[in-house]
Design a protein that fits this description.
Layout (H helix, E strand, L loop, with lengths): L1 H9 L5 H6 L3 H6 L3 H9 L4 H10 L12 H8 L6 H110 L3 H17 L4 H27 L6 H14 L2 H32 L11 H5 L4 H37 L8 H38 L8 H22 L4 H32 L31 H8 L10 H4 L6 H19 L2 H19 L4 H5 L1 H6 L7 H10 L1 H7 L7 H19 L4 H24 L14 H13 L1 E2 L10 H7 L3 E2 L18 H28 L5 H10 L8 H12 L2 H9 L14 H21 L6 H24 L6 H21 L8 H9 L5 H10 L5 H11 L6 H13 L6
Parallel strand pairs: 1-2
Helix pairs in contact: 5-7, 7-8, 7-9, 8-9, 8-10, 11-13, 11-14, 13-14, 13-15, 14-16, 15-16, 15-19, 15-25, 16-25, 16-26, 17-19, 25-26, 25-29, 26-29, 29-31, 31-34, 32-33, 32-34, 33-35, 34-36, 34-38, 35-36, 37-39, 38-39
């Protein structure tokens, strides 16, 4: 059926007859003739049967048009042919052919009207095509006329105009190319002028223009040349950026930053800047140190240039150490100041950019700039710590490269002050505590201070052993603040702030609050001002000590005093010491008037003049020097304060050893040395005093060095004589020594609050203990030292002998006192006169006078009791004579001294009155009055009560005396 349908499609335009004629011979053979067709149509055939016949046709006949049915049927023939079978098969094929032919004929007839109608349409189309051909011919003829008359001429004009336009553009391009080729010269000029932003702007514009004309062969080469030029500009820009690390210039840096902004490399520029700062620090310190090393080496040897910086620092000489350190800090200051000004520039620049609000067109661009600014800000803030760390490490290498233990004190203080100033710079630069610098300078300071303190202790021992204990003449208003070593206390307490603060103080209080970076932002250098200030300070100290003027003042006083002596009555001369000590006013108006006339100058000028020696002044200066170290370098504050305490300890121990050590009073019951003072002296002897023999000192020197503190005990100078009674056994020297120690203790007291602020919190108990147990005991040395004078100044043994010759068992009441009282009073008058003689050379303060008189009176009273206790027989009248003698002694004594009450007055009176006690009262007396010796108590029992009590009662009282454990006072 497919074949039939395809056949019908191909032959659709022909009539059935024509279609039949076009069939191939075979097909024509297969198709039945008209008669057959007619017969077939005429013969009634059941459609169902007809369809069954068609369906029985083999499928292969419908396969394709190229099917060879004859060949197919021949191949189907069996090997042995049977005519009957062949005829039957032929009939079957005919029936099938007839059925197909009938079906085809029916289909053709069915489509006949449609075929006719389509044929009519084709005919009409043919007619229309012929008409269209005529129209086209006419149009072509008319177009040919228009071409000749209009198009040829007009388009020629247009072509010429287009060519002219192209040539004009070409000329403009050629001029641009000519300008581009000359750009290289202009770029070189701009780079020489350091107009980096202009050069980059020009170069970028040229690149943009070159990319427009890149189709020209000459421009393609120019483009690569411009790229090389741009890279060259970036290199020069990097060099220009590195110049800002040492000497920051606002205009120069603004150009550089604008140039990097045009390149779009703001962040890269910041990375490069930090690299340049790091390199600048390294190069700067290396060149400074190298210059000093080569200068000191004195030859042109270049071996130093190849050294590492750390090794180079070890070749710095002691003489060039401080100048090199100062120049080093100056150079590093310039680098850090440049970085500070760089940050300041970026802050101001950011504020200027963020103040106007960006419009919509610039929103994207501003977003990028915000990112850049944020990156730059973080990078700069992070760079602060890095740069300061580099500075610390470089200075640390320099500090540790030299052993400073042999430096002079002033030189070492300068080093500390410079480093402390540098640490202040670091704190203001990035808030750093400069742990690296602190650790390195602490190590050097401990090393230096160990040697320095050892030398100072040895020096102090030498001073003490050569000290003649003469009064050092100073002004009456002398104060330690006047000394050069204590000038720092009048300045700011923070380390090494003095130079800048003092520089600022001259211009007003407001500037004192400015930081170093604000003070020296545009000019100057804090380390330069430091050195200049140091020189001025030294000159000021030399002028402020004023020894010469004091000497003149002292001489004037002495001359006046000597001249006036002849006019002063002897009675006033005896009372001279009382005025000197500032005792109570005298009762006589005339004497008061004379004194006001004769002694007023002395009272005003010298009454309160401090008593000190050259050694005292030396110790005070040492304390000031130590405190300077402490003030500048707080990490070793405790070590320094410990050494300061040793200076005082050694001075106290020396004064005690020279003037106060005596076995005579050890057994006395006067309590001359308190337990606190004894503990302090024992502690000093154990911790500070070297007890080895002199011959062994060399052998144990290493051990002493390890202990760092042991010093041989000092020896009193042979020029100091303490055995001469005419000088009251060296009273002047004793006063100078003891009162200079008290003066030194007072200065320590005034420094306590300052030292307390320096001391670490954990070590403050040490300082408090030092003051409470050592400094406060200085005045307690007066008792043992002046007791020695008092014990020898009056001949107590003579008085005992005189008392032994007195008869006390008299029967009549006497109205005249005994001779020994007059002798004793004469001794006191002589003592008073000698005291006045001593006071002409050395002022005797009131406490000293009181102690001396107290000792003498107490010794005299105890001698009286001892004399009374030696009496073998005594009557009531004799005891009354004792009272008379003692009252006479007191009455005359009160005229010689203003000391009230009279010391140990009750001691004598109570002993005399004990004679009148009963047996029971005596037993209670023995228990209550342990200040009396066993001999004195026994004498009361034997002599006073012997005639009133029996032997048994006496034995009981004596046994009570023996049983009492009498602790020594």
């Amino acid at each position: 059926m497919q074949k039939i349908k395809s056949l019908m499609t191909r032959q659709g335009l022909k009539s059935p007859q024509e279609s039949m004629a076009d069939l191939s011979p075979v097909e024509n053979f297969r198709i039945p003739s008209k008669e057959e067709l007619r017969e077939l149509r005429e013969q009634p055939i059941d459609p169902q049967a007809e369809q069954e016949i068609i369906d029985s046709i083999e499928e292969v006949y419908f396969s394709n048009d190229a099917f060879d049915m004859v060949q197919h049927e021949l191949e189907k023939l069996p090997p042995e042919l049977n005519l009957q079978e062949l005829e039957e098969y032929r009939d079957k094929l005919k029936r099938q052919q007839a059925a197909v032919s009938k079906k085809v004929a029916d289909l053709i007839l069915e489509k006949q009207p449609a075929y006719v109608k389509e044929l009519e349409r084709v005919t009409a189309l043919q007619t229309n095509l012929q008409l269209a051909a005529v129209i086209c011919t006419n149009a072509r003829r008319q177009l040919g006329v228009a071409k000749e008359g209009f198009t040829g001429a007009s388009l020629g004009l247009l072509a010429n105009q287009r060519r002219r336009h192209l040539l004009t553009g070409l000329l403009k391009s050629l001029r641009t190319i000519k300008t581009l080729q000359r750009t290289d010269v202009r770029l070189s000029e701009m780079l020489e002028e350091e107009d980096y932003p202009g050069a980059i702007q020009l170069c970028l514009e040229c690149q943009k223009a070159a990319s427009t004309f890149k189709h020209y062969s000459c421009i393609s080469e120019l483009n690569s040349k411009l790229q090389d030029t741009l890279e060259q500009i970036e290199e020069q820009l990097d060099v220009a950026l590195s110049k800002t690390c040492k000497h920051f210039d606002v205009a120069h840096y603004t150009k550089v930053q604008l140039a990097y902004t045009l390149l779009g490399k703001t962040q890269t520029a910041m990375d490069q800047l930090h690299m340049h700062f790091t390199q600048a620090i390294h190069n700067t310190v290396f060149q400074v140190v190298l210059g000093y090393v080569e200068l000191c080496a004195g030859n042109a040897d270049t071996k130093f240039q190849k050294m590492q910086y750390k090794d180079l620092c070890t070749h710095i000489t002691l003489d060039s150490y401080i100048p090199c350190l100062t120049d080093l800090c100056k150079a590093l200051w310039e680098v850090m100041l440049s970085y500070h000004r760089t940050m300041q520039w970026h802050e101001e620049h950011d504020n200027m950019e963020t103040s106007p609000g960006p419009d919509d067109a610039a929103a994207a661009k501003s977003g990028d700039s915000v990112v850049d600014r944020s990156y730059v800000k973080k990078k700069l803030e992070h760079g602060l710590t890095r740069i300061w760390q580099d500075v610390q490490l470089k200075v640390k290498a320099y500090i540790l490269g030299t052993d400073m233990s042999n430096f002079k004190y002033d030189d070492f203080i300068v080093v500390l002050d410079v480093i402390s100033r540098l640490m202040q710079v670091g704190e203001e630069f990035c808030g750093s505590k400069s742990e690296v610098l602190q650790e390195s300078i602490k190590w050097q300071s401990v090393n230096y201070f160990k040697h320095y303190h050892r030398a100072r202790l040895e020096e102090l021992r030498m001073f003490l052993e050569n000290e003649t204990w003469e009064l050092c003449p100073v002004k009456s208003n002398f104060n330690i603040a006047q000394l050069h070593e204590f000038k720092f206390m009048g300045q700011c307490r923070s380390p090494s702030v003095s130079p800048s603060r003092q520089a600022a103080s001259s211009t007003g209080l407001a500037q004192e609050e400015l930081s170093l970076f604000q003070l020296y932002l545009l000019e100057g250098n804090p380390f330069e001002m430091h050195i200049e200030h140091k020189e001025e300070e030294t000159e000021d100290v030399l002028a402020s000590n004023g020894y010469e003027s004091d000497e003149l003042e002292k001489c004037v006083y002495q001359d006046y005093d000597n001249d006036s002596d002849s006019d002063v009555p002897e009675e006033l001369k005896q009372d001279y010491v009382d005025e000197q000590t500032g005792d109570a006013p005298l009762k006589s108006v005339s004497r008061e008037t004379i004194r006001s006339k004769k002694k007023s100058d002395y009272n005003l000028n010298k009454a309160n003049a401090p008593i000190l020696t050259n050694t005292t002044l030396n110790v005070i200066r040492l304390v000031g020097k130590y405190m300077q170290m402490m003030n500048i370098l707080k990490p070793i504050a405790f070590d320094v304060i410990h050494c300061v305490s040793q200076l005082f300890d050694y001075y106290l121990y020396a004064v005690y050893t020279f003037f106060g050590r005596n076995d005579m009073y050890e057994s006395s019951s006067l309590g001359l040395i308190s337990s606190r003072l004894r503990t302090t002296l024992n502690r000093i002897q154990e911790s500070l005093i070297e007890v080895e023999a002199a011959g062994e000192n060399a052998g144990v020197h290493g051990a002493v060095e390890e202990r760092k503190e042991k010093v041989p005990s000092p020896h009193l100078s042979q020029l100091v004589v303490l055995t001469n009674s005419g000088t009251l056994y060296g009273l002047a020297q004793r006063v100078v020594a003891t009162e200079s120690l008290v003066f030194l203790a007072e200065q320590f007291e005034s420094l306590q609050s300052h030292l307390d602020t320096m001391m670490p919190a954990a070590k403050k108990p040490f300082l408090q203990q030092f003051y409470s147990q050592t400094v406060s005991t200085a005045s307690e040395l007066r008792k043992p030292i002046y007791w020695i004078v008092a014990a020898r100044a009056i001949d107590y043994e003579q008085m005992l002998l005189l008392m032994a010759g007195v008869k006390w068992d008299i029967r009549e009441i006497m109205s005249q006192h005994n001779v020994y009282v007059d002798v004793l009073l004469k001794e006191f008058e002589q003592f008073n006169k000698r005291l006045a003689d001593v006071s002409r050379h050395v002022r005797i303060p009131l406490p000293v006078s009181n102690v001396l008189w107290e000792h003498c009176i107490r010794l005299a009273n105890r001698t009286l009791v001892e004399g009374y206790a030696n009496v073998k027989k005594c009557s009531n009248e004799g005891r009354a004579l004792m009272q008379l003698d003692f009252q006479q002694f007191l009455m005359k004594l009160e005229k010689l001294t203003d000391l009230r009450p009279i010391p140990d007055k009750e001691f004598v009176e109570t002993y005399i009155k004990a004679y009148y006690l009963t047996e029971n009262d005596m037993e209670q007396f023995i228990k209550n009055h342990r200040e009396y010796s066993m001999k004195q108590l026994a004498n009361l029992v034997n002599v006073c009560l012997g005639s009133h009590i029996n032997k048994k009662a006496r034995q009981k009282l004596l046994a009570a005396i023996d049983d009492i454990d009498r602790p020594k006072r």
